[in-house]
Write a structure and sequence with these properties.
It is built from one helix and 22 strands. By secondary structure, it is mostly beta strands.
Length: 358
């Protein structure tokens, strides 16, 4: 019998022993949970989060940033609920002159599907926007009912980044619906980038693990398009490495975003861990980086950029990094929260000198 897979809050009860401490222990945060050490070079903004829950729109849990630099203006595409927390999630647009103080337009850019059978009837999440062939392309996660359903990637276009039209050929990327496949149940959380005059679309994929550890195996896939509309076959390009083993209850990788600097492709993503002592037990635990010369073969950093307990406002989760290269720096925006303990939820900022990554 097939088991529904959940992309954000796992309902699977794991009958596993406690996770042993790893060799390069960061600190336990008083909980007995082991954390890897973190790399040096990234500096988080002292005033984080730069966007907080309820800014511009009462009750809005701002999440999943995607940032472009257009002239002197930073443009962020981000999502929030327009109903109760987690309900009717849709994308919005915000602008900033410094990347720290943001003005959010409270008009949604896209609506959820109008028909209960639509793949994006419940939510339009994790927007990733690129400018390609004279127009803006947005790729997003479509959720039909909840994350027990199959998850697809949708596509929309815009002449100006303000007025958007969904692609009538949606969805753009689909799961196989065979849960034993690496992309069998979920293809979502897209991260698009223009590379070699094509759109490379990275995404989270989920299927059954079929081995010890968390039931779900979460990896990063890729599909390529010549025109931004039609994508070729999906390929698995990155799966959890030796730092994040299933024996330590790591489920895999989530929410990738891609960046090209010179001849190098950079991939930023978060790492999911199942922590049975927490509720919810599905946790976006660290932010990580890998790089590539061709967008297919990836070399991961030895250590993460941040772990969730590096800041008080991300003590429950740290997630959804997006990075641009600007003014000789890598500039990153990322989401996180300590919502259960303190009610804090938001989007933060960090940066690093461009020499950090060769």
């Amino acid at each position: 019998m097939e088991i529904p897979l959940k992309i954000r809050i796992s309902t699977v009860v794991c009958f596993l022993l406690c996770v042993a401490a790893c060799d390069d222990k960061h600190h336990s945060g008083g909980s007995g949970i082991d954390y890897p050490g973190t790399q040096t070079g990234w500096t988080a903004y002292a005033g984080n989060p730069v966007i907080t829950m309820g800014d511009a729109l009462a009750g809005a849990q701002w999440n999943d940033p995607c940032v472009l630099k257009e002239g002197a203006t930073y443009v962020m595409y981000l999502t929030a609920n327009t109903g109760a927390p987690g309900e009717n999630v849709v994308p919005f647009r915000a602008t900033s002159l410094d990347g720290l103080a943001w003005s959010i337009d409270t008009t949604p850019l896209l609506a959820t599907g109008s028909n209960p059978g639509d793949f994006d009837y419940a939510k339009v999440e994790t927007p990733s926007v690129v400018f390609f062939n004279g127009e803006y392309h947005m790729y997003y996660t479509g959720v039909q009912t909840d994350f027990n359903d199959p998850v697809y990637i949708g596509h929309a276009t815009s002449p100006d980044g303000l007025v958007w039209t969904k692609d009538p050929a949606n969805p753009a990327v689909s799961p196989t619906l065979n849960q034993s496949d690496w992309n069998g149940w979920h293809t979502g959380e897209p991260g698009a980038v223009v590379f070699n005059s094509k759109v490379y679309l990275y995404f989270t994929a989920a299927g059954l693990r079929g081995a010890s550890g968390p039931v779900v195996k979460r990896t990063i896939g890729m599909a390529i398009s010549d025109d931004g509309f039609v994508f070729g076959a999906s390929t698995q390009v990155l799966e959890q490495g030796t730092l994040y083993t299933p024996e330590k209850n790591y489920e895999g990788y989530s929410t990738p975003s891609a960046l090209v600097v010179g001849l190098t492709m950079h991939l930023f993503y978060d790492v999911v861990r199942i922590i049975s002592s927490e509720n919810p037990d599905w946790v976006q635990f660290t932010l990580h980086h890998a790089q590539s010369s061709d967008g297919v073969g990836w070399a991961e950093d030895a250590l993460p950029i941040f772990v969730r307990i590096d800041a008080s406002w991300t003590r429950r989760e740290v997630r959804a990094p997006v990075v641009i290269h600007d003014s000789a720096k890598f500039k990153m925006w990322f989401a996180g929260d300590d919502f259960i303990s303190s009610g804090v939820w938001g989007i933060g900022y960090a940066d690093a000198e461009e020499g950090l990554y060769p």
